[in-house]
Amino acid sequence: MQNLINNLLSGLKNIDSKEKEKLEEALQLSINLHSQQKARPDGPYVHHILRVAGRIANYFEIKEVAIIIAALLHDAVEDQSAQLQEMAGGGDISAHETALQHINDKFGEKVAGIVASVTNPIHFDSLDTDEKNRQYAAHVAEMINDRDVFYVKLSDFSDNGLNLNDLRDKQQRLNLAKKYLPLYTIFLHRLRQPDIEIKNNVKSEISGKLLDAKLFAEMVIASQ
Q1: Residues ≥6 apart with Cβ < 8 Å to 135
Q2: Left if phi > 0, otherwise alpha if psi is -120 to 50, otherwise beta: which for 39?
Q3: Domain 1-119, CATH
Q4: How many other CB atoms sit within 10 Å of the CB of residue 117?
Q5: Tens place of pLDDT per residue across the chain (224 aa)
Q6: What's the rounded Cα separation, in Å, for the pair 64 and 69?
C-alpha cells in the first residue's frame, strides 16, 4: 500500500500547504474507511481507491486537489455511509445524506458534488439485473457530462472495466461484460470531447484499451 501512496503523492509535490493538509486528511479517511472492506479479485479494496486517485494525478496529469480528494472518497458514501454517519455524530436524515454532508463539511462543496455524482442511487438495489444495468449506463452517461466527474469515473472504470480477462470466475466475467459493454462507447465518446484536458497520446492509449476491452466483452457475451 505504501508504494501506491507514494505514487499518488509524488504527482502532487507542488501543491500548497493547506491543500496538502486536506489531501492527507482525505487520504487517511479513505484508508480508515476501506482498509477492512472485502477484498476485490485484484487485491485489497483500499488499493483500488489509491489506484483511482493515483491514475488521475500521474497518468491523466490532473492536479486539482479537489478532484484527487473526490477520487479518494469516490466509494465512501456508496460503501461506507454508516461509518461516515457515525463520524458525523448521527442524525435524523439518511446515512447517505449525512455522509455526503460530512464530506461537504470536511472537504467542500466541489468534492461532495463529485462524490454524490459517482454514487449509485439507492433504488438501484431493488431493480432486476437487466434494468439495473440499463439505468447504470444511463446514470454514467449523464454524470460524466461534468468534466471533473468524468476524470474520477474514467479512472474508476479503468480499474474495473478494462481487466475482465483477468477474472477467473466465468459467471462474474459474464455478468460484468453485460454491465460494462454499453459503457465502453460512452467513455470513448466523452474522452474525445475537446474540453477533456488529458494529453492526446494518453487519450489514444486509453481509447485503445477501451476498444480492446469492448471487443473482449462482446466475445464473452457471444460465447455464453
Answers
A1: 124, 127
A2: beta
A3: 1.10.3210.10
A4: 21
A5: 899 999 898 889 889 999 999 999 999 999 999 999 999 988 999 999 999 999 999 999 999 999 999 999 999 999 999 999 988 888 778 899 999 999 999 999 999 999 999 999 989 989 999 999 999 999 999 999 999 999 999 999 999 999 999 999 999 999 999 999 999 999 999 999 999 999 999 999 999 999 999 999 999 999 98
A6: 9
Please spell the DSSP secondary structure of 34-68, one letter per residue.
Answer: HTTSPPBTTB-HHHHHHHHHHHHHHTS----HHHH
pTM: 0.96
Q: Name the residue ranges covered by the structural domains of the chain.
A: 1-119, 120-224
- 3 is written with which cell numbers? 508504494
The DSSP code sequence of 95-106 is HHHHHHHHHHHH
